[in-house]
Amino acid sequence: MTPEQILAEIRETNLSYLMLAQSLIRADREQALYRLGVSEETATLLAQLSPAQVQKLAASSTLLCRFRMEDDLVWSLLTSRHKPAVNDQSAQLHAQILMAGRHAQSL
């Protein structure tokens, strides 16, 4: 992949992320805060962006979203790298509980 292609992919991802974020925030703010992992202030800012502002932000060469899971346990649970006795649904539920707890701590 060329550097130009990578930049185009980043811009496209940024635009998709911003549009999704605005849609989630407008539809169900509390769910959006949890799913996006953003603060109230950030959610308010995102919801108020005009289409021109969204386009300008999306054009950045910096990826606006990031992985929130920096915990090996969460990654292990989500990727099924756990004990065979633990089923996938239980592992995903456990990972969601861990992430929800971290979201609550960050508020």
Can you describe what's shown?
By secondary structure, this protein is an all-alpha fold. The chain has two domains: 1-66, Flagellar transcriptional activator fold, CATH 1.10.4000; 67-107. 71% of the residues lie in helices and 0% in strands. The protein has six helices and no strands. Helix 5 (72-78) runs antiparallel to helix 6 (88-106). The longest helix has 25 residues, at 3-27. It is flat, with a radius of gyration of 16 Å. It starts with a helix and ends with a helix. The mean pLDDT is 83.
Name its key features.
Flagellar transcriptional activator fold; 107 residues; mainly alpha; single chain; 71% helix; 2 domains
Which SSEs are present, and which pair or pack?
Blueprint (H helix, E strand, L loop, with lengths): L2 H25 L1 H8 L3 H9 L2 H8 L13 H7 L9 H19 L1
Helix pairs in contact: 1-2, 1-3, 1-4, 5-6
Gist of the model:
With about 110 residues, the chain is an all-alpha fold.
CATH architecture of the largest domain: Orthogonal Bundle
Q: Give the class-level CATH name of the largest domain.
A: Mainly Alpha
Helical proportion?
over 70%
Contiguous runs where pLDDT drops below 50 for at least 5 residues: none
Give the overall silhouette.
Answer: flat
Gyration radius, in Å: 16 Å
CATH fold group of the largest domain: Flagellar transcriptional activator fold
Number of helices: 6
List the secondary-structure elements in sequence, H or E.
Answer: HHHHHH
Distance between the amino and carboxyl termini:
39 Å
Mean pLDDT over the full residue set: 83
Helix vs. strand class: mainly alpha
User: So, the CATH homologous superfamily of the largest domain?
Assistant: Flagellar transcriptional activator FlhD
Largest sheet: none
Q: State the oligomer.
A: single chain
Number of separate structural domains: 2
